Amino acid sequence: MSAAERKHEFVDSLRRRQIIDGLSLGKRTDGRGLTDYRELKMEIGAIVKANGSAMVHLGNTIVLVGVKVNLGTPFPDTPDEGILTVNADVLPIASPYEEPGPPDEDTIELARVVDRGIRESHMIDMSKLAIQPGKKVYSVFIDVTVLDVDGNLFDAVSYAAVAALMTTRFKKAVVKGDEVIQSDKMMEMPVKTIPVSITTAKIGSHTILDPDGIEEAVMDARLTTTFDSANRLCATQKGGEGWFTPEEILRQMDIARVKAKEIRSVIKEAVKNAKKS
Amino acid sequence: MSAAERKHEFVDSLRRRQIIDGLSLGKRTDGRGLTDYRELKMEIGAIVKANGSAMVHLGNTIVLVGVKVNLGTPFPDTPDEGILTVNADVLPIASPYEEPGPPDEDTIELARVVDRGIRESHMIDMSKLAIQPGKKVYSVFIDVTVLDVDGNLFDAVSYAAVAALMTTRFKKAVVKGDEVIQSDKMMEMPVKTIPVSITTAKIGSHTILDPDGIEEAVMDARLTTTFDSANRLCATQKGGEGWFTPEEILRQMDIARVKAKEIRSVIKEAVKNAKKS
Amino acid sequence: MSAAERKHEFVDSLRRRQIIDGLSLGKRTDGRGLTDYRELKMEIGAIVKANGSAMVHLGNTIVLVGVKVNLGTPFPDTPDEGILTVNADVLPIASPYEEPGPPDEDTIELARVVDRGIRESHMIDMSKLAIQPGKKVYSVFIDVTVLDVDGNLFDAVSYAAVAALMTTRFKKAVVKGDEVIQSDKMMEMPVKTIPVSITTAKIGSHTILDPDGIEEAVMDARLTTTFDSANRLCATQKGGEGWFTPEEILRQMDIARVKAKEIRSVIKEAVKNAKKS
Amino acid sequence: MTELIDKNNLRVDGRKLDELRPIKMQVGILKNADGSAYIEWGKNKIIAGVYGPKECHPKHMALPDRALLKCRYHMAPFSVDERKSPQPSRREIELSKIIREALSPAILLEEFPRTAIEIYIEVLQSDGGSRVASITAASAALADAGIPMKDLVVGCAVGKIDGKIVADLSDIEDKEGEVDLPVACMPNLNSVTLLQSDGPLSKEEFKKAFKLALDKCRYVYDIQRKALLEGYLAKTKEA
Amino acid sequence: MTELIDKNNLRVDGRKLDELRPIKMQVGILKNADGSAYIEWGKNKIIAGVYGPKECHPKHMALPDRALLKCRYHMAPFSVDERKSPQPSRREIELSKIIREALSPAILLEEFPRTAIEIYIEVLQSDGGSRVASITAASAALADAGIPMKDLVVGCAVGKIDGKIVADLSDIEDKEGEVDLPVACMPNLNSVTLLQSDGPLSKEEFKKAFKLALDKCRYVYDIQRKALLEGYLAKTKEA
Amino acid sequence: MTELIDKNNLRVDGRKLDELRPIKMQVGILKNADGSAYIEWGKNKIIAGVYGPKECHPKHMALPDRALLKCRYHMAPFSVDERKSPQPSRREIELSKIIREALSPAILLEEFPRTAIEIYIEVLQSDGGSRVASITAASAALADAGIPMKDLVVGCAVGKIDGKIVADLSDIEDKEGEVDLPVACMPNLNSVTLLQSDGPLSKEEFKKAFKLALDKCRYVYDIQRKALLEGYLAKTKEA
Question: CA nearest F228: which of F41, F14, F25?
Answer without folding.
Answer: F25
